[in-house]
Amino acid sequence: MTFLSSVNAFTGAPKTSVYGAGKAAINSLMRTAAIELAPRGIRVNAVCPGPVDTAFVKKAGVPESAMPDFNTAMQRRIPLGRIGTPGDIAKLAAFVSSDDASYITGAEYLIDGGINVNQILG
Fold first, then answer.
1. What strand order describes the sheet that includes 2-4?
2. By C-alpha distance, which of 36, 6, 21 is closest to 108?
3. Catalytic one of 19, 20, 24, 77
4. Distance between CA 117 and CA 92 in Å, rounded?
5. Is 19 among the residues known to form the active site?
6. Which domains does the chain have, with CATH numbers?
């Protein structure tokens, strides 16, 4: 079982308190479920994406006219220099859910291009 969380479970950002708290709750639930379900052979992990090129940003209120500047500013903060794709996240989720990850449970996987270790720059 793989939960979809967020880097916001680990960091704070303006106007994201409820979102971040919800994602932190998902990670806590994941850790408890990993312990409780392990005797049944059920593995439980969390994939925690950073910025990903989806409609989420538009729903968050960034005006269409501001998107190019927003994307440029975001890419400057990401050590790998690009915003993630849904495919990036799907590949990690597929791996963590596969038999190739049969000895992994209770893990939180940051997939964020390094932005979580680059917070003080911007």
1. 2-4, 45-49, 108-111
2. 6
3. 19
4. 19
5. yes
6. 2-115 (3.40.50.720)
